[in-house]
Amino acid sequence: MHKQRMLIVGGGALAIVAAFLPWISISFFGMTVRASGISAGLYDGWIVLGLGAAVAGLAFTQGDRNAELDATQKKTIAGMGGAIVGYMLFFMFVRAQGGFGALGIGVYIALLSGIAVLAAPFVIKGDGNFEMPTKDTIKADLDGTGDDSTSTEA
After folding, report:
1. pLDDT tens digits in sequence order for the chain, 154 residues long
2. Which among 104, 148, 138, 103 has a CA at the least distance from the CA of 118?
3. Is 153 helix (H, G, I), strand (E, B) or coil?
4. Which residue range(s) make up the domain with 133?
5. In this structure, is residue 152 part of a structural domain?
6. What share of the chain is helix, strand, coil (3-state, %, to 5)?
7. Please, how many CA atoms are within 13 Å of residue 38, restricted to the half-sphere of its CB?
8. For 43-100, what is the HEC assignment?
9. How many structural domains comprise the chain?
């Protein structure tokens, strides 16, 4: 499997795991109560769980697994990764700022997984090497005009 796809599948799997970890911890009278992302009061974890499963599934099943993603797949995967990041930032700064409790480890891991999924199509190139993307290389990747070094013509 191509390194780009492995990082995306790993990021999706990390989002799935993060949904089951504590998202909020509330301490009162010497007791601490933790709620995971998929607990009864929080539906937010189900959204992250679904996006993580979709991202991992798309990266694993779409096209040749030994080749990098094409432009359409990059747009789809980056959009889903961006959705995870955006939703987690919304959760962190809007929903969880009710003045009670603290954010749990699951929130931070879900945010990290979204960043990994969002960055993977642009950081790992066709030959499997890591390269810091620029504005022009990201635009070329999304337009489908980037360097296609995965062609296997002999």
Report:
1. 888 888 889 999 999 999 999 888 887 888 888 878 888 566 788 888 988 999 999 888 888 878 877 778 888 888 888 888 888 888 777 766 666 678 888 888 988 988 888 888 888 777 777 778 778 877 877 777 765 544 444 3
2. 138
3. coil
4. 3-143
5. no
6. 60, 10, 30
7. 13
8. CHHHHHHHHHHHHHHHHHHCCCCCCCCCHHHHHHHHHHHHHHHHHHHHHHHHHCCCCC
9. 1
